[in-house]
């Protein structure tokens, strides 16, 4: 046997080791790309059910939109903010400024309103508005103004109080309380109701 | 000659301008006057409704008032209807009341316009069933045990009482019509 023989053997072993190393490397990389990714679960986002707004703590969005859907996935209400929307994870509240809010019936806006301030629980069942609200409803040419208002999503009712004024066609109506029942397609005014022609 | 022609042309231009200004002024006055008269006509009759509660059905175009309902009609005459419940039918454009039904017991008060002698009559009426107000012809129809007391304002001794199943008051003509065989005049009007 010549003196080169061991070097050939060493070379062959080195080559084998290199090939195996490359094969292991690429196999590992392929597994990493195709397998499930482990991510850190942020507090408050463990379970994404139909009613929750799952955003990280203290996320502030300017000009955002939030939707609320029922168990069947139908759109119940929608809010757009020209101001800001902020989700407070500690109190589980959605706060908004300068918002436009739509109450939907059969996926169509039944009532639309604008409010300087919005507050909603994370289950979306109750939404509160403050500091002067103006809105329109699908029923014939109606526009309203109130100081405070809340939307009760489970019964699809808007309840407004404080300086209630409703304009319907040529008539101006004032009262202590305004209730817009979207489900039953009815508007109700309570307390010191007064109706007069506007012109 | 040229001077005279130019002078003539200038003169006619000036006259044209004056005519245009005059026509424009007349048109402006006519339009303004018509608008003022139109506004006046619209404001002639007003009706205000007060109640404890109002319900509006989106698909029926109706108002339902409950709780101490009162309608006040003003415009040359004064009228008022009170009832525990009232139903109002609105026009499709929501620009006028087609009719108003006051469900009994109903009370109705009306002060007529002065007649040719300057006398106004106050009418106090009531009905057990209902009162029907039609805005188009300005009439109020009381039915079901209707009764009306007619009093000449400021004139002694001119009173009358009308009792019947149906009494119709025409607010425009200040005329009272009693429909029924059971008409009863307890105190005749004395002239």
Any overview of this molecule?
The complex is a heterodimer of chains A (199) and B (191). Chain A has 199 residues and is of the alpha+beta class. Chain A has a domain at 60-197: lipopolysaccharide transport protein A fold, CATH 2.60.450. Helix content of chain A is 15%, strand content 51%. Chain A has one helix at residues 5-34; strands spanning 60-62, 65-69, 75-81, 84-88, 93-105, 108-121, 126-130, 133-137, 142-146, 148-152, 157-168, 171-181, 186-197. Chain A has a six-stranded antiparallel beta barrel. With 191 residues, chain B is of the alpha+beta class. Helices cover 21% and strands 49% of the residues of chain B. Chain B is built from one helix and ten strands; from the N terminus they run H-E-E-E-E-E-E-E-E-E-E. Residues 38-43 and 186-191 of chain B have low confidence and may be disordered. Chain A binds chain B through residues 138-141, 168-171, 173, 175, 185-197, 199, and chain B through 42, 46-59, 61, 63, 65, 90, 93-96.
Broad structural category of chain B: alpha+beta
Give the strand order of the largest sheet of chain A, numbering strands 1, 2, ... along the chain.
6-7-10-11-9-8
CATH-assigned homologous superfamily of the largest domain in chain B: Lipopolysaccharide (LPS) transport protein A like domain
Number of strands of chain A: 13
Number of helices of chain A: 1
The CATH topology of the largest domain in chain B: lipopolysaccharide transport protein A fold
Question: Largest beta sheet of chain B, briefly?
Answer: 6 strands, antiparallel, barrel
Kindly report how far apart the N and C termini of chain A lie: 120 Å
Low-confidence stretches of chain A: 34-58
CATH classification class of the domain at 60-197 in chain A: Mainly Beta
Radius of gyration of chain A: 30 Å
Tell me the count of domains of chain B: 2
Number of contiguous helices of chain B: 1
Helix content of chain B: 10-25%
> What's the assembly state of these chains?
heterodimer
Report the top-level CATH class of the largest domain in chain B. Mainly Beta
How much strand content do the residues of chain B show?
over 45%
Average pLDDT level of chain A: 80
**Biggest sheet details of chain A:** 6 strands, antiparallel, barrel
């Amino acid at each position: 046997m010549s003196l080169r023989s061991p070097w050939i053997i060493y070379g062959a072993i080195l080559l084998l080791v290199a090939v195996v190393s490359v094969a292991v490397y690429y196999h590992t990389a392929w597994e990493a790309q195709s397998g499930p990714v482990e991510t850190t679960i942020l507090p408050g986002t463990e379970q994404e059910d139909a009613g929750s707004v799952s955003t990280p703590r203290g996320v502030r969005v300017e000009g955002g939109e939030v939707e609320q859907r029922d168990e069947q996935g139908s759109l119940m209400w929608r809010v757009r903010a020209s101001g800001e929307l902020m989700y407070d994870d500690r109190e589980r509240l959605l706060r908004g400024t300068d918002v436009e809010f739509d109450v939907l019936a059969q996926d169509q806006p039944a009532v639309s309103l604008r409010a300087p301030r919005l507050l909603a629980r994370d289950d979306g069942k109750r939404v509160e508005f403050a500091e002067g609200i103006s809105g329109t409803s699908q029923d014939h040419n109606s526009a309203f103004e109130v100081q405070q208002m809340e939307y009760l999503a489970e019964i699809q009712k808007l309840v407004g109080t404080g300086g209630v004024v409703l304009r319907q066609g040529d008539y101006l109506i004032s009262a202590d309380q305004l209730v817009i029942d979207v489900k039953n397609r009815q508007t109700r005014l309570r307390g010191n109701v007064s109706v007069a022609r506007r012109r | 000659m040229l001077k005279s022609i130019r002078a003539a042309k200038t003169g006619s231009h000036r006259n044209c301008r004056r005519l245009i200004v005059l026509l424009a002024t007349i048109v402006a006055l006519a339009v303004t006057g018509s608008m003022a008269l139109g506004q006046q006509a619209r404001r002639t009759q007003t009706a205000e409704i007060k109640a404890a509660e109002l319900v509006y059905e989106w698909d029926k175009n109706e108002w339902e008032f409950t709780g101490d309902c009162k309608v006040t009609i003003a415009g040359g005459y004064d009228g008022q209807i009170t009832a525990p419940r009232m139903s109002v039918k609105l026009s499709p454009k929501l620009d006028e009341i087609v009719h108003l039904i006051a469900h009994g017991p109903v009370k109705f008060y009306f002060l007529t316009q002065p007649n040719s002698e300057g006398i106004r009559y106050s009418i106090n009426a009531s009905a057990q069933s209902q009162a029907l107000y039609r805005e188009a012809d300005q009439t109020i129809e009381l039915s079901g045990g209707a009764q009306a007391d007619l009093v000449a304002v400021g004139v002694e001794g001119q009173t009358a009482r009308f009792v019947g199943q149906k009494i119709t008051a025409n607010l425009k003509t200040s005329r009272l019509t009693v429909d029924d065989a059971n008409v009863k005049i307890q105190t005749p009007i004395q002239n």
